[in-house]
């Protein structure tokens, strides 16, 4: 009886998770008007006709509505195209040509700048190119298009056939889909209500047989988490969420960097004290730790940051390498302000530092430090660019923000939104999942979860790792600007080498 009931409960919980909790980004579209031009008596916006420069043979008017019908805001960077592509969505009308087009309605006037000249709105033969429009939840805009027969042949058909159109595009962490008019109760809402009723009935049956009302896949116990300071905000938020769902669990944290965390875990395994230990690492473990088992968790973006006084917001890989080699010592040499460069790095063993050396410096190790205060070279140190190191992501960001001319690096989510820092593009490419996933942005790394051997499937460590990768933890990862590995266009990027 209990197993049969769970067969109803599990799909129901999955449905609630998809409909209510997960809230993936969704871009919707639908045709709101499709009529021959001869059926149109009047229109409030004749702009589409003003564009016509030739007589029409078999004209048709189509009104297309584009809307954000998901649960979260859609940014320009969410469109699944390369950064240098202006168009985010392409609408194609097979066997027709677009002879005129005008944007007729904006639900939010803040979207108007996205349709200015050069922003990406264009007509090409039988296609309409729509720009990457930032849209709040529930926002929409409409495009009125005048179509004609391809080749100029009159097609006399009664009743007039519906115009077919195809949509090419997408949003990271979500999808683009055709929607329908919202008149009446949507089928999805009716289906959801049906699921909820079934779940309530099933839960009553389960609770009648058992007093344990813990959520699915909960485990009891304690886990000590060590490792990456860059990933610390994500794993701490996920742990708090897990505790709220699963009573009888507790977590402790000692996030001193990926290197120290891996060394601690390896020694705990040698001492027979690895139970309940979990380490998060920016990148793979070093050689000599065969007992540590990796699990890809997320595709993590990193960024260079500079003090706002430098006057620089974009550097090529070659310029970055020359700065860290000491061949460029003043921002004026690369178009910035007349300020000496001061480099704020992470201590050796940091996963963020290892990712920077591997992916940006071409495998070269950063030179040693020559300063404790990050402003002046210590007495007796070698001449050259001032270099210092800090033991955490937050310490690096605070130091760069406080010292004119300073530059450092950190996990993207930690740096985003800070007014006292400038996030640096690399070679003209911003730190986005789409740019990194297409090999345009180089500074990223896989976040791994390490345990000594395989933890028991019913243990808290195993349950929490599942929670991070395919449950609510995955939403928390996305909220910090990173992506679960399974959602990449190239998931193999996350695999251990």
SSE topology sketch:
Layout: H1 2-22, E1 25-36, H2 47-50, E2 60-68, E3 87-92, E4 96-106, E5 122-124, E6 127-131, E7 140-149, E8 166-169, E9 174-178, H3 187-209, E10 221-227, H4 232-245, E11 249-254, H5 258-270, E12 277-282, E13 292-307, E14 314-315, H6 317-324, E15 342-346, H7 351-359, E16 386-390, H8 393-402, E17 406-411, H9 412-415, E18 421-426, H10 433-437, E19 444-452, H11 460-470, H12 472-479, E20 483-484
Parallel strand pairs: 1-9, 10-11, 10-12, 14-18, 15-16, 15-17
Antiparallel strand pairs: 1-2, 2-7, 3-6, 3-8, 4-7, 5-6, 12-19, 13-17, 13-18, 13-19, 13-20
Helix pairs in contact: 1-3, 4-12, 11-12
Tell me about this structure.
By secondary structure, this protein is an alpha/beta fold. The protein folds into 2 domains: 148 residues, Immunoglobulin-like (Sandwich), CATH 2.60.40; 283 residues, D-Maltodextrin-Binding Protein, domain 2. The chain has 12 helices and 20 strands. Strand 15, helix 7 and strand 16 form a beta-alpha-beta unit. It starts with a helix and ends in a 13-residue tail after the last strand. 38% of the residues are buried.
């Amino acid at each position: 009886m209990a197993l049969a009931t769970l067969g109803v409960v599990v799909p129901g919980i999955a449905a609630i998770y998809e409909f209510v909790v997960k809230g993936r980004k969704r871009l919707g579209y639908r045709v709101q008007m499709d009529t021959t031009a001869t059926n149109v008596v009047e229109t409030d916006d004749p702009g589409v006709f003003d564009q016509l420069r030739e007589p029409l043979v078999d004209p048709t008017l189509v009104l297309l509505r584009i809307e954000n019908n998901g649960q979260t805001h859609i940014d320009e960077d969410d469109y699944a195209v390369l950064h240098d592509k202006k168009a985010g969505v392409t609408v194609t009308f097979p066997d027709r040509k677009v002879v005129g087009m005008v944007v007729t309605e904006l639900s939010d006037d803040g979207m108007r700048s996205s349709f200015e000249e050069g922003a990406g709105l264009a007509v090409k033969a039988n296609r309409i190119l729509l720009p990457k429009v930032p849209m709040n939840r529930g926002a929409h805009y409409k495009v009125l298009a005048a179509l004609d027969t391809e080749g100029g042949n009159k097609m006399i058909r009664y009743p007039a056939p519906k115009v077919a159109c195809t949509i090419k595009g997408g949003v990271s962490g979500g999808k683009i889909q055709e929607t329908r008019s919202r008149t009446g109760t949507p089928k999805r809402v009716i289906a959801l209500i049906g699921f909820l009723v079934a779940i309530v009935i099933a839960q009553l049956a389960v609770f009648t047989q058992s007093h344990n009302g813990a959520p699915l896949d909960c485990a009891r116990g304690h886990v000590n988490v060590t490792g990456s300071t860059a990933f610390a905000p994500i794993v701490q938020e996920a742990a708090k969420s897990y505790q709220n769902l699963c009573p009888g669990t507790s977590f402790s944290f000692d996030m001193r960097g990926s290197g120290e965390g891996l060394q601690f875990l390896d020694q705990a395994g040698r001492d027979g004290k690895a139970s309940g230990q979990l380490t998060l690492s920016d990148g793979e473990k070093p050689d000599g730790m065969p007992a540590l088992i990796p699990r890809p968790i997320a595709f993590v973006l990193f960024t260079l940051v500079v003090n706002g006084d430098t006057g620089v917001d974009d550097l090529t890989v070659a310029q970055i390498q020359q700065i860290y080699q000491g061949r460029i010592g003043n921002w004026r040499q690369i178009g910035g302000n007349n300020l000496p460069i001061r480099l704020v790095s992470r201590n050796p063993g940091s996963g963020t530092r290892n990712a920077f050396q591997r992916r940006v410096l071409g495998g070269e190790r950063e030179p040693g430090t020559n300063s404790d205060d990050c402003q002046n070279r210590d007495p007796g140190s070698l001449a050259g660019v001032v270099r210092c190191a800090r033991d955490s992501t937050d310490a690096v960001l605070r130091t760069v923000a406080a010292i004119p001319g300073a530059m450092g690096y950190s996990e993207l989510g930690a740096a985003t939104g800070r007014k006292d820092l400038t996030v640096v593009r690399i070679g003209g490419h911003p730190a986005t999942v789409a740019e990194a996933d297409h090999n345009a942005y180089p500074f990223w790394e896989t976040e791994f979860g390490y345990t000594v051997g395989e933890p028991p499937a019913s243990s808290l460590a195993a349950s929490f790792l599942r929670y991070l990768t395919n449950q609510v933890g995955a939403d928390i990862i996305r909220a910090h600007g990173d992506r679960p590995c399974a959602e990449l266009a190239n998931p193999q990027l996350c695999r251990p080498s």
